[in-house]
Structure formats: structure tokens, C-alpha cells
Task: inverse folding
């Protein structure tokens, strides 16, 4: 079993990193009712863990025993009917789903599932009418339409169900939704916190963790606790006992992107662009999301770039990232970014070195 | 041979008259025609001489004529001419001054002899009108043979040129780049040649557009053959070509001895110029050309000198002497008498004929009367002929000998399928061949209903056409047994088989059935051999493909028609016409008839203008469209042309553009040592393509179809405008062709991998040990999972490692397919395969251990979760049809079928009660409780395997699963039931 899963806090009490938030959440649900919640924060900061712990706090252990289902919906839209299918995890009291997986028709899912939940309202042990919780992941990837329809249903059915939304960036969630929720910002854990967690795990596993090694992992993890733990475990699989200077293997795709970055820095020509396109395709077919590619590529480029270009390149990266969201064929935009970078960098090189 | 000879003579005697008449028109009635009768004898002697030499000259070059066979036909048409001519145009006919003629004769015979015609110039320059007239007659005849010859040599040269160009020459030839398709009517050469031409770089003319292009007399360059080389001073290559053609000249691709001038402004030492020097062809500058043209219009005095000079020059160069000509001149008188006698015989008869036929449309009127008349495709016609000739021997008598033989003979197809673009004579040749072999042709075409024959007897055969066919096809037996010589043989011509539409349900299948039982030959005709509808038919037919005739072949035929109708047309104009209609003979003749209504002289410009608008819509493949957009000519296309090109396939063209735009070296960038400008253009083009993507989303998602022009503008036209130029290869070994857009394939792969990833995701979720998103899974869990799955195998001893890995897999409900997924998605090009270094015995052991583990364990919840891949695919398909989405995947059809089946079964399951079915299953399995439990588990597990089946392994598992014949249905229900139970 992976350590990430093994040492995931199951209840709000076990939480190590965001203890203050956990405490607040506990108070929040103690009064038997809770508002809609919007958790946002960078990945690996513990949003899902907190949500699961919160559900457990509300509904007891039964919440953890959801069943995985691949549900199909048949939706009638006037002239035609749309069939949609989505993997959900549900228990009697809650449903988790990630509506953005169905692409641009996510709004039907949002509408349908909420109506469905409103239909059969659970009754708790005391005979009081309870409510269900709908957990939606990756809300920032929901289409605008879906977010709008979410807004309506949130109010209409607010007595039957509570929404817990989870996303990375609250800026992509419409204002209307944000104002209807209690926003909970989950910060990335600090390096110290990560080290603390790693040492905790090391102790539980009975490992000898050299001092400084945990710090190196924390440093590598970019303040993502999940990644830190996974890295830790990778290192464990790779080599034990640990040494302080043990190489921490990079993620396969990150390595590949940094190769692309150095390719681009080394030569700016149509030929190179063509090769880069091939590599980008390779990443995309391996299911690396294009936004991540662009972000990582920018990161790698910035590390090698001269100061004066950084600002401009960031601007273009943002520009193409935005366009990538509006478009459909990510590779076009990635390629456009690389081409743009090449032309800028080439001009810069010529201007500087002649 | 004697009669043949005679006919030849007659033919050649006639010809001049047509010509006379034609040019006479141009020259104008200014001259009265007092001496019509007197003139004839005069012209004849000359003509006959000409003939003598001509025919020899012709023989020399006539390998492209099926000379002997063709001639009777020629003659016939020629015969028709004179009478009309005579009636209409006696006035204009001939005003010749004997002396001038003599001079002229000399010239003429010289032409004929060696096809170099410098004298033409003298003809028009010193010119009395009558002379001009004469000269063109001479030319017309000579031209013809030049023509054919040239056509061929052109092609050769084109190819050679391509080679030489690749090696760095920068001269030009017609086929290159964007213009390729339009300048080349001969489809045969196709892309290969055309592409080669894009490999070189030609500069723009240095003084482009700075000179005034002169206007001259319409045929002042008549009979002259030019070759253009290098960069001209102010004209683009195409403009120069156009200019020459407009004035009656001829432009060919390479220098031969028939070339009069090599048009070039600088000696670039290329292949053409060296050849020209070798042959002594004079060089002509652009200014020289302008002067020649101006001279024809300008004051005669001034131009005369110049042109005389040039004549002298030319003569001295070519060295083919007047002596020869004189020799020939002496032989003139002999044939004169002969000719006049033959001619006088026929006029009246012919006239009647002409009147009778005038009501027919020309396409009917000049439909070939014998197979040899068909323009082009002679070999195909011969094949057809042979097939039909031996048909009876092969299938009726041969059938008696034994069937084994039939099978072995590769040619033994009972039907033939003629395919080719419209208007090139498929139906005609089928009919003609049938007629020639004495078959009675029965034609069934799209105007008849051709549905499946109605098998019900009570309807009789009268009701349905198909029944008639059946009847016809099977009833020959009688005739065969009796005396076949008396009985007319029949042949069935199924025209337009690819046009079998909704009304002709089962038509093709029925046709195949008919072919199988047929006792008569069947000729099927279609336009598109690769049509989906005809796929099944192809196996039963001998496939004959008709090609488009070359423009020379067509022009020749059109010339005959024009002559026969008393139209005056020059060769170049007709070639242009042939080119414009893109090989469609029928359309060419129709156009000709149409033009004949309003004019009696057809000139290059007329054809050009008229057909520019009414040009036949070509089918442009996306590749051709991209070639044109990005070729050198790409910058000169009009906007509407560009839109047409990019709209020819609004889905594929942008993808091909996107795939290939990097490969072009933009010709708008002149000095670009460091490649910076090019890089900038690439960036702009890339951005524009990305714009196109965004617009496309708006179009599809919000149905804003009015944006489609803007979409094609930004995704094709702007990149093309920025990048058009020479294509170069980026990778060694790559062929210099446009690649097919890679996006479709990659997107499909991405979709497939996403689905696989989702399966793994579901399994991990179902194991209830983890709660992670799909993206997180790929980005962060993958390396660790991969390490867990592979590292032990590499490092630890075999048994221990296997045990460890299997344990891990079991814990997270990872199936073997998921294992493959993890490995597959972690592979990166240029990186080591994650499975490297693992001994195959270890892998095998792992597989075994995993299966073992599987058997001994109870149903896992992960196995019971229906995987998204199974239904999703078909659903996505529907979605894709409605609105192409991000995940419009390219699944195989077969998979879809399998899934449909699956779906229908599971639907019934939902309706019917699963419990009962479970009972049935239990009984049918005849097993005890535990066994059943196992069975269910296995099945359930194999249902988990269905996803892989969905991605291409077909129904391989379904068979083994259930010998009971109900296959999937049964297993599906068991699975359901099992699931219910557990829950």
C-alpha cells in the first residue's frame, strides 16, 4: 500500500498539517448544518483529505464506504437525447464526482445529479430530515454554462443538499458561486510541515531518515505534500538505507519537459520546432494535461532565461494558456508558444551576441 | 495501300482549305475574291507537294498517332469542311498573288521538313495579307506533328527538369508548384512531377511590372516555339507564357530542335541554354519579344528590317537550306490534277449530310464511330475488346471443360468495370467495342430503376427492370445451344453503377448475383472506382481505368471537330480549352459548340476568358489544395481562389496546413541569413493557426457557422500567405511531400490512453484505498506505481519479486491490462522502456502468479464496476457526430459493433429480471455453489477485460467464455446478477 494512502488522516483529529482549518471545520459541522463549501488551494495541499475527513465527521464512518459506480444518464434536450456517463463514488449520504470529465456537456450532469439527489432525501436516525452532500471536484474546469446552472440549483435545492466544491484556483470559479459558498483556502504546507510529516512516516515505517534528506525531498516537492510522500516512497523503493545525497528521481514527464526546454534553448529553427512538436505530442498522448505541460515548460525555460526576457515570456505563456482554454486542439497552442518563444529568443540572441 | 494513299492525298489537299478559310477570315474581306476559281489550281500544286513531304514528315513523328486507323476518320471530317467552306466563305477564301506565293512555298516546305520555322516571321512582317494567310496554312499542318512530338518531349523534359532542378538549377518549367495542376492536363504525371518543381528557388523578376506589355496582332507569333529559361526582366514566367500564347506562339518546356527561340534575359548556363547553344537555337531577350509583338502592330516599315534580320539570323543558324525547299518545290505540279479531280466530286453530297446533322448536338454528332476514334485510352479499349472477344470462349465453352480452369485464370472475370472521370468516353467505348464485335448492346443506366430483382414470380418480368436483367442474363442458354452465328449476341452495359441510390435497393448485390449467373458479358461503368458502394463489386470485375487524354490528343480531336463545323480555331486555343475542361472531352466539345454560336474564330484569349469563369469544378484533394496555397504561386492567387482551396475540405486542409507549414521556406523573406525572419513568420503562422482553432470551437460549440470563412482564413490562408514558398525537408530521409495532419492520429491515441487511464483510475478508486483524481494519478502516482511494479522485478530474486508485485497489484485492484497501461503511458520516445532489464522469465512468472492469485480470490468490488470504456465509446461516437468534441476518438467500426451488441444485451438485462437469468445460468452451468461462485468471478473479471476488447482485440474473449452460443448476453447477465448479489 502506498504511504500516501496509508498515512492519510482519516478524521479531522488526525490531521497534522492544517490543524486550525480542521478545527474550524469541526466546529462548523457541529451545529448539524453546514453551508456550501468551496475548498481551493494548490494540489497536494490536502483538500480532498480534509473533505473526506469532514464527511466522516458529519456522517460517521459510513461515509468512507462509498461504492464506485459508473453511472449513465440519459438526458432529454428537446430534439435529441444525450447519453452521458461518469464515474461516481457514492454512499447513502454523499456523492462525489468530477463533472468536468465529461467535457463540455458537464452542465447536464450538474443539473441531473442535483435533481436526483433532491428527490430522495435521507432521514437520519433521529427521524430528522437530513441532507445529502454533493462533492464536486475540479470545479474550476467546469464550463461556464455548468457553473451557471450550478448557481441556480444551489439555491433551489439548498435545503436538501449541500455542495462541497473543490478546485485549484478560485479565480476560474464564477463570482456568483464563490459568494454562495464558504470559501476555505488550503495553503500548501510549508517545508517544515512536510519534513515533519515525512519524519512521522519514517518513524512509523521504522526507517532511518538521515537529517537533511527529508528537507531535500521537501524542497523537491514544490510544497506538495502528496508529491513529497510519493517521492519519499520512490526513494525508498529505489534505495534503502537512505543516504543524505541520494538522488531524488524526477517525475518522468518533468524530465521530458526539461529536455524540451533545453532543446528550445539550444537551437531556434523550424527544424527544432518540428522535433519539439513531436515531443509535445508524446506528452499529450501520455495523458499529460496540456496546461501542466505549458506551465512546466515555462518553469523550465525561466530557470535558464536571462532576466530581461522573463517578463515577456511569462506574458506569452499566459496568453497562450488562455487561448488554449478557449480552443480545442492544445497542440496548436503549445506549438504557437514554442514558436513565439523561439522567435523572441532568437532575436534576443542576435541582438546580444550579434 | 493505294486507296489509303489516295485518301491521304485527299486529306492533305483538303486541309489547306480549311486553313485558308480560317485565316482568310482573319485577314478580312478587304480583298475581293475575283479569282476564286483561278486560285484553286494554284494553291493545289503547292499543297500537294506539301503533302508529299508532310506525310513523310508526319510518319517520322507520328508514333503517337494510331496513324493508319485514324486517317479514315480524319478524312471524313475533312471532307465535310470544304463544302461548307465553299458555300459560306468563297468570298474571303483566297486572294493570293502568285509571286508571293512562290516565295512562300519555299518557306513552307522548309518548315515541313524540319519543323523549324524562322520564316514565319518573314511571313508576317513583310506581309501582304495574302502571304500571311499562306504562311499559316503551312504552319497549321506542320504544327500538328510538332504538336504531338512536343507533347511527348514536354513530358520527358518535365521530369528531367525536375531532376536538374533538384540539383540546384533555378530555371523554371511549367509544372511547378501551385500551377502544376492547371498547366498539366495529363493526369498521368501527377504529383510526382509537380512536386519536384517546388524544389528550387526562382527569383522575382528584377523589374517586375515596370515595362509596358505590348499588344500585337493576334497571331503574330504563330508557328513559333519558345522556351523560357531563367528569370525574365519584367515578366513572371506565367505572364510571359500567357503573352506568347495569346499571340499564337507555343511555349514548351525544354529546348529541342523545333524550338525557335530561347527566351531569357540572362545566360544562366543552365541545361536549357547549353542545349540551345548546341542546337543553335537563337536567344531572345524579353525586349526582343516585346519588339516582335509590337512590330506586328506597329509601322510595318520599321519592323520589317528588324524582322528580316531576325529571319536571316535564324536561317543562318538553322542551316537548313532553301535548297531543300526548292527541291521540293519542283515536285509540286505532279499531284495537282489528281487533287482537283477528287475534290470536285463530293461537295453536294456532303452538303446534305451537313444539313441533316446540324440539329444534333456536337457531342452526338462527333461521337466516335469506331474504337480507334476514341481519344486516348487505346490500350484500355483494346483490353476491353479482347475481353469481350474471348468472353464466350472463356465462360461458355470454357465452363464446359471444367470449373477448375476457370478459377485459375486470373483474367477470368465475368464482368468488366470501366472507371474514369466523366466525359472521357467510357460509355462510348463500351458501345463501340460491342458494336464492332457484333454484340447487341443493352444499356441500363441510372434512369432505369435497378433495384433488387423481385423474386416473386407472379409479378412477371415486366414489372421490374431488374427482372428483365435477370431474364436477359440467364436466358442466353438457348441461343448458345442453337446456332450462335445467327443469333445476335448481346452484351449488357450497366452504366453509372456508382449512382445506384436509395431507389435501387440491393442493386449492387443483385448485380453481383447477376454476374455470377450471367450468360452474357456485363460491362459496368462507374466514375469512382473506390466508392464504398462498389467495394463488393470490384472482386467480380476486371478493372479497367480510363485516364484523361492529354491536351494534345484532345486538341487534335477538337481541331477536327472545329474544322468540320467550319470553325476557325488555332491549336493553342484548343489546347487551352482542353486544359481548362480538365480532360473532359464531352465538355470540351460542348464548350466548342457553345462558342461557335457567337464566334467563328476561336482564339486563345476567347477560350481563356470564357472558361475562366465556367471552369469545371475540379475535385481538389486537400493535399493539392495545400500544395497550391503554399506553392510559389500561392502569393498570386486571388482571395476567392484561396477561400475555395481552403474550403475544399474545411476539416482536413487546416490540419495538413498545421502539419506542414513549418516545412516551407517563405519566399517573402529575401535576405534571412540567421533565419530570424523566418522564425518570426513561423510564430505568426502558428498563432494564426491557433486562432483558427479557437474560432473553430465557436463554430462547433455555438453553431456559429457564419464564422467558417474566418476560420479558414486564419487556419489556412494567413499561414499560407506568410509561409508560402519552397518546401524543404526537416528530417533526413523524409520525402518532400506534405504529410497528412498528425493531429487526428495523435488525438485518437490520446483518447485511447485516457480511457485506459480511466480504467486504472476506476480500479484504484474501487479498491477503496485511495481517493485520487485521474490527473493526479497520471502526474504524481504513476512514477511510484511504476517503480512498485517494475523495480522489484529487476532487483529482487524472482519469486520474491513476483510475490511482492502481485501483492501490490491485488491491493490496488490493478489488473494486468492496467499494468500494461502504466508501462505504456510511462514510455517516452528517446527514453528507456520501463520494462527494460526485466527478464522474460520473470515476466512470465508474474503473469502466472497473477492468474493464480486471481483464481483463489473472491470477487473484488473493482471487478464489478462497469468500466467506462465499454459503453462510453459508442456514446462518444454519437456525441462526436452531433458535435465533434475533444474526445472524438477514432474507434474501429468493429469495436462499435461489438459494443452495440453488448449494449442491446445489457438493455434487455435491465428490463428482464436478472434473478431469473441468474437461475438459468446456474442451471446451465451445472455446477456446485463454489464453482458457480468462481465462474461468476471469472466472468466478472473477464468483463473487466472487455475494455481491452474495446480497443481492438475484438470479441476474442466472448467465444471462450460461453460455449453456449449466447455469448456475451449470458455473461453480461451473470455479471449483473453477481453484482446484485454482492450488493
Result:
Amino acid at each position: 500500500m502506498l504511504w500516501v494512502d496509508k498515512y492519510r488522516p482519516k478524521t479531522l483529529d488526525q490531521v497534522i498539517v492544517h490543524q486550525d482549518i480542521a478545527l474550524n471545520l469541526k466546529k462548523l459541522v457541529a451545529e448539524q448544518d453546514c453551508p456550501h463549501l468551496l475548498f481551493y488551494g494548490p494540489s497536494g495541499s490536502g483538500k480532498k483529505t480534509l473533505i473526506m475527513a469532514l464527511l466522516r465527521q458529519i456522517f460517521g464512518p459510513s461515509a468512507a464506504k462509498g461504492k464506485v459506480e459508473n453511472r449513465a444518464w440519459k438526458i432529454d434536450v428537446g430534439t435529441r437525447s444525450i447519453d452521458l456517463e461518469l464515474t461516481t463514488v457514492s454512499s447513502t449520504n454523499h456523492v462525489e464526482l468530477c463533472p468536468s470529465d465529461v467535457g463540455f456537456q458537464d452542465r447536464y450532469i450538474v443539473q441531473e445529479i442535483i435533481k436526483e439527489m433532491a428527490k430522495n432525501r435521507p432521514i437520519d436516525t433521529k427521524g430528522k430530515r437530513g441532507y445529502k452532500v454533493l462533492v464536486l471536484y475540479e470545479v474550476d474546469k467546469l464550463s461556464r454554462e455548468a457553473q451557471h446552472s450550478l448557481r441556480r440549483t444551489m439555491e433551489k435545492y439548498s435545503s436538501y443538499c449541500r455542495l462541497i466544491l473543490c478546485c485549484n484556483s478560485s479565480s476560474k470559479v464564477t463570482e456568483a458561486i464563490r459568494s454562495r459558498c464558504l470559501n476555505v483556502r488550503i495553503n500548501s504546507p510549508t517545508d517544515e510541515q512536510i519534513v515533519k510529516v515525512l519524519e512521522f512516516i519514517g518513524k512509523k515505517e521504522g526507517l532511518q531518515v538521515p537529517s537533511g534528506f527529508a528537507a531535500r525531498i521537501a524542497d523537491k516537492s514544490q510544497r506538495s505534500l502528496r508529491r513529497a510522500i510519493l517521492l519519499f516512497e520512490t526513494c525508498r523503493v529505489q534505495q534503502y538505507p537512505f543516504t543524505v545525497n541520494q538522488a531524488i528521481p524526477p517525475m518522468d514527464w518533468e524530465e521530458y519537459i526539461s529536455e524540451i526546454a533545453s532543446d528550445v534553448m539550444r537551437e531556434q529553427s523550424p527544424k527544432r520546432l518540428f522535433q519539439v512538436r513531436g515531443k509535445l505530442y508524446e506528452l499529450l498522448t501520455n495523458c499529460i494535461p496540456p496546461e501542466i505541460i505549458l506551465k512546466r515548460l515555462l518553469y523550465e525555460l525561466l530557470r535558464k532565461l536571462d532576466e530581461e526576457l522573463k517578463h515577456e515570456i511569462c506574458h506569452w505563456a499566459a496568453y497562450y494558456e488562455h487561448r488554449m482554454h478557449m480552443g480545442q486542439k492544445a497542440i496548436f497552442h503549445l506549438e504557437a508558444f514554442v514558436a513565439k518563444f523561439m522567435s523572441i529568443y532568437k532575436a534576443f540572441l542576435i541582438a546580444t551576441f550579434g | 495501300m493505294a486507296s489509303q494513299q489516295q485518301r491521304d492525298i485527299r486529306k492533305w489537299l483538303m486541309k489547306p482549305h480549311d486553313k485558308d478559310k480560317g485565316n482568310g477570315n482573319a485577314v478580312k474581306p478587304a480583298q475581293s475574291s475575283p479569282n476564286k476559281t483561278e486560285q484553286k489550281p494554284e494553291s493545289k500544286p503547292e499543297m500537294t507537294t506539301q503533302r508529299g513531304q508532310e506525310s513523310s514528315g508526319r510518319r517520322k513523328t507520328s508514333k503517337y498517332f494510331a496513324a493508319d486507323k485514324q486517317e479514315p476518320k480524319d478524312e471524313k471530317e475533312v471532307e465535310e469542311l470544304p463544302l461548307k467552306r465553299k458555300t459560306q466563305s468563297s468570298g474571303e477564301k483566297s486572294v493570293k498573288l502568285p509571286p508571293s506565293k512562290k516565295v512562300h512555298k519555299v518557306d513552307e516546305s522548309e518548315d515541313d521538313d524540319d519543323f523549324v520555322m524562322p520564316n514565319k516571321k518573314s511571313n508576317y512582317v513583310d506581309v501582304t495579307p495574302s502571304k500571311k494567310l499562306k504562311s499559316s496554312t503551312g504552319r497549321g499542318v506542320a504544327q500538328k506533328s510538332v504538336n504531338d512530338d512536343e507533347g511527348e518531349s514536354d513530358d520527358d523534359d518535365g521530369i528531367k527538369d525536375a531532376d536538374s532542378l533538384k540539383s540546384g538549377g533555378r530555371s523554371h518549367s511549367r509544372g511547378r508548384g501551385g500551377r502544376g495542376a492547371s498547366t498539366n492536363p495529363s493526369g498521368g504525371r501527377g504529383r510526382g512531377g509537380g512536386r519536384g518543381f517546388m524544389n528550387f528557388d526562382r527569383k522575382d523578376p528584377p523589374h517586375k511590372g515596370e515595362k509596358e506589355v505590348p499588344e500585337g496582332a493576334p497571331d503574330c507569333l504563330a508557328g513559333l516555339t519558345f522556351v523560357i529559361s531563367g528569370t525574365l526582366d519584367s515578366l513572371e514566367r506565367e505572364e510571359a507564357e500567357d503573352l506568347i500564347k495569346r499571340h499564337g506562339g507555343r511555349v514548351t518546356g525544354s529546348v529541342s530542335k523545333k524550338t525557335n527561340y530561347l527566351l531569357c534575359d540572362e545566360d544562366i548556363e543552365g541545361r536549357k541554354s547549353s542545349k540551345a547553344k548546341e542546337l543553335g537555337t537563337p536567344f531572345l531577350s524579353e525586349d526582343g519579344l516585346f519588339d516582335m509583338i509590337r512590330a506586328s502592330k506597329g509601322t510595318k516599315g520599321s519592323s520589317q528590317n528588324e524582322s528580316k534580320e531576325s529571319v536571316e539570323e535564324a536561317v543562318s543558324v538553322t542551316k537548313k537550306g532553301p535548297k531543300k525547299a526548292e527541291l521540293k518545290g519542283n515536285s509540286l505540279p505532279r499531284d495537282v490534277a489528281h487533287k482537283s479531280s477528287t475534290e470536285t466530286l463530293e461537295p453536294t453530297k456532303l452538303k446534305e449530310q451537313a444539313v441533316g446533322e446540324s440539329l444534333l448536338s456536337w457531342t452526338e454528332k462527333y461521337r466516335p464511330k469506331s474504337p480507334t476514334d476514341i481519344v486516348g485510352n487505346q490500350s484500355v479499349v483494346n483490353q476491353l475488346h479482347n475481353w469481350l472477344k474471348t468472353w464466350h470462349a472463356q465462360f461458355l465453352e470454357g465452363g464446359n471443360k471444367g470449373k477448375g480452369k476457370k478459377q485459375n485464370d486470373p483474367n477470368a472475370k465475368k464482368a468488366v468495370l470501366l472507371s474514369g472521370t466523366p466525359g472521357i468516353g467510357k460509355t462510348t467505348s463500351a458501345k463501340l467495342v460491342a458494336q464492332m464485335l457484333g454484340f447487341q448492346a443493352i444499356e441500363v443506366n441510372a434512369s432505369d430503376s435497378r433495384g433488387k430483382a423481385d423474386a416473386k414470380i407472379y409479378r412477371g418480368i415486366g414489372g421490374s427492370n431488374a427482372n428483365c436483367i435477370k431474364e436477359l442474363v440467364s436466358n442466353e442458354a438457348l441461343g448458345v445451344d442453337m446456332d450462335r452465328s445467327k443469333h445476335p449476341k448481346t452484351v449488357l452495359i450497366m452504366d453509372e453503377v456508382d449512382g445506384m441510390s436509395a431507389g435501387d435497393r440491393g442493386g449492387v448485390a443483385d448485380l453481383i448475383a447477376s454476374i455470377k449467373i450471367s450468360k452474357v458479358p456485363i460491362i459496368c461503368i462507374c466514375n469512382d472506382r473506390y466508392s464504398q458502394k462498389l467495394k463488393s463489386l470490384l472482386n467480380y470485375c476486371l478493372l479497367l481505368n480510363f485516364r484523361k487524354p492529354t491536351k494534345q490528343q484532345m486538341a487534335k480531336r477538337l481541331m477536327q471537330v472545329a474544322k468540320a463545323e467550319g470553325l476557325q480555331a488555332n491549336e493553342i486555343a484548343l489546347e487551352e480549352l482542353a486544359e481548362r475542361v480538365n480532360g473532359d472531352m464531352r465538355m470540351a466539345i460542348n464548350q466548342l459548340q457553345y462558342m461557335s454560336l457567337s464566334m467563328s474564330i476561336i482564339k486563345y484569349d476567347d477560350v481563356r476568358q470564357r472558361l475562366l469563369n465556367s471552369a469545371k469544378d475540379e475535385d481538389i484533394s486537400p493535399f493539392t489544395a495545400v500544395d497550391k496555397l503554399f506553392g510559389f504561386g500561392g502569393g498570386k492567387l486571388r482571395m476567392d481562389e484561396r477561400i475555395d482551396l481552403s474550403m475544399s475540405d474545411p476539416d482536413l486542409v487546416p490540419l495538413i496546413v498545421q502539419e506542414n507549414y513549418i516545412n516551407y521556406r517563405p519566399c517573402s523573406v529575401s535576405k534571412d541569413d540567421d533565419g530570424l525572419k523566418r522564425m518570426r513568420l513561423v510564430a505568426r503562422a502558428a498563432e494564426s493557426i491557433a486562432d483558427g482553432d479557437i474560432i473553430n470551437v465557436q463554430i462547433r460549440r455555438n453553431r456559429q457557422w457564419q464564422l467558417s470563412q474566418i476560420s479558414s482564413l486564419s487556419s489556412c490562408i494567413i499561414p499560407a500567405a506568410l509561409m508560402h514558398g519552397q518546401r524543404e525537408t526537416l528530417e533526413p530521409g523524409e520525402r518532400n511531400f506534405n504529410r497528412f495532419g498528425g493531429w487526428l492520429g495523435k488525438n485518437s491515441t490520446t483518447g485511447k490512453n485516457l480511457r485506459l487511464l480511466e480504467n486504472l483510475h476506476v480500479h484504484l478508486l474501487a479498491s477503496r484505498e485511495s481517493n485520487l483524481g485521474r490527473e493526479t494519478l497520471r502526474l504524481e502516482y504513476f512514477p511510484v506505481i511504476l517503480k512498485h511494479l517494475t523495480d522489484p522485478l529487476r532487483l529482487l530474486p524472482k519469486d520474491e519479486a513476483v510475490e511482492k508485485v502481485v501483492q501490490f497489484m491485488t491491493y490496488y485492484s490493478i489488473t494486468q491490462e492496467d499494468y500494461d497501461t502504466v508501462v505504456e503511458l510511462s514510455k517516452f520516445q528517446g527514453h528507456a522502456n520501463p520494462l527494460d532489464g526485466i527478464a522474460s522469465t520473470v515476466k512470465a512468472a508474474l503473469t502466472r502468479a497473477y492468474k493464480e492469485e486471481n483464481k483463489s480470490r473472491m470477487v473484488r468490488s473493482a471487478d464489478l464496476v462497469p468500466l467506462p470504456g465499454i459503453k462510453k465509446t459508442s456514446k462518444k461516437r454519437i456525441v462526436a457526430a452531433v458535435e465533434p468534441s475533444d474526445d472524438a476518438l477514432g474507434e474501429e467500426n468493429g469495436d462499435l459493433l461489438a459494443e452495440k451488441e453488448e449494449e442491446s444485451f445489457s438493455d434487455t438485462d435491465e428490463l428482464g429480471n436478472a434473478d431469473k437469468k441468474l437461475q438459468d445460468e446456474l442451471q446451465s452451468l451445472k455446477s456446485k455453489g463454489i464453482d458457480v461462485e468462481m465462474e461468476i468471478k471469472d466472468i466478472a473479471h473477464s468483463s473487466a477485460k472487455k475494455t481491452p476488447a474495446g480497443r481492438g482485440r475484438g470479441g476474442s474473449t466472448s467465444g471462450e467464455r460461453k460455449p453456449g452460443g449466447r455469448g456475451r448476453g449470458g455473461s453480461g447477465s451473470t455479471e449483473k446478477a453477481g453484482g446484485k448479489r454482492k450488493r
In short: Chain B has a mean pLDDT of 64.
